[in-house]
Specification:
alpha+beta; Bactericidal permeability-increasing protein, domain 1; six-stranded antiparallel beta sheet
C-alpha cells in the first residue's frame, strides 16, 4: 500500500521525511475474542497483525529523541513489526453521508508488539549497532508505555482508520443487525 510517499512527521524535536514509503501487511490479520454489543453499537475485539513492514526508498531524519538523545540519518528505511496485537472496545457510528461504518471512540485500547526488527541506514558507521539496539529494546519500551501512546495518538489513530473506512459502503451490513 503506497500511501506514505512524501510522509513527513515531527515528534517533539525529531523530524523525519520519507520518500516512496509503503506499509505492507495491514490486510493480513487475525481476529480474536470478538463480541458485538447491539445496545451500544460497539464491538469488543482483539486483532493480531503477524507482520507489518514499513519501508521507504529514502528517508531523512534529524533531531533528538525526547529532546535528549541526538539522532540523524538518511538512506534506506525498513522496520518490521512482528505480532502487533490491538485490543479494545470500538464504538461505531454512521458516516455523515450515511454509507460507512466509522469509529466513534475506543475504550480500553491497548496494544503490544512482540518484536521490532530494524534494517535502517543511519550513517554507514553505526548502522549495525543502532539496528541491534532497536531490535533488542524498542518493542519492550513501546509496550511499557503503550497507554502513553494511546492517550497521545488515539485520536489520530481513529482519524486515520476512519479515513480508510469511509471508502466503503458498509453501513447497510451493520443496519441489518440493528
Amino acid at each position: 500500500m503506497k500511501l506514505l510517499d512524501g510522509l513527513q512527521f515531527s515528534v517533539y524535536s525529531l523530524n523525519a521525511d520519507f520518500k516512496n514509503g509503503e506499509i505492507i501487511g495491514l490486510g493480513n490479520f487475525d481476529v480474536h475474542n470478538t463480541e458485538f454489543i447491539k445496545e451500544e453499537v460497539s464491538i469488543e475485539l482483539s486483532l493480531n497483525f503477524p507482520l507489518i513492514t514499513f519501508q521507504a526508498e529514502n528517508y531523512k531524519m534529524k533531531g533528538a529523541v525526547m529532546e535528549i538523545i541526538p539522532i540523524a540519518g538518511r538512506g534506506v528505511f525498513e522496520f518490521q513489526i512482528h505480532n502487533l496485537t490491538i485490543t479494545g472496545k470500538f464504538y461505531l457510528k454512521q458516516s455523515d453521508d450515511e454509507k460507512s461504518i466509522l469509529i466513534k471512540e475506543i475504550s480500553n485500547l491497548q496494544f503490544s508488539i512482540q518484536k521490532i526488527v530494524s534494517h535502517v541506514e543511519f550513517d554507514n558507521n553505526i548502522d549495525d549497532i543502532a539496528n541491534a539496539i532497536i531490535t533488542d529494546l524498542l518493542a519492550g519500551y513501546i509496550n511499557r508505555f503503550n497507554q502513553f501512546f494511546v492517550k497521545l495518538y488515539g485520536g489520530y489513530f481513529i482519524n486515520v482508520i476512519n479515513d480508510f473506512l469511509n471508502n466503503f459502503d458498509s453501513w447497510q451490513i451493520l443496519a441489518t443487525l440493528l
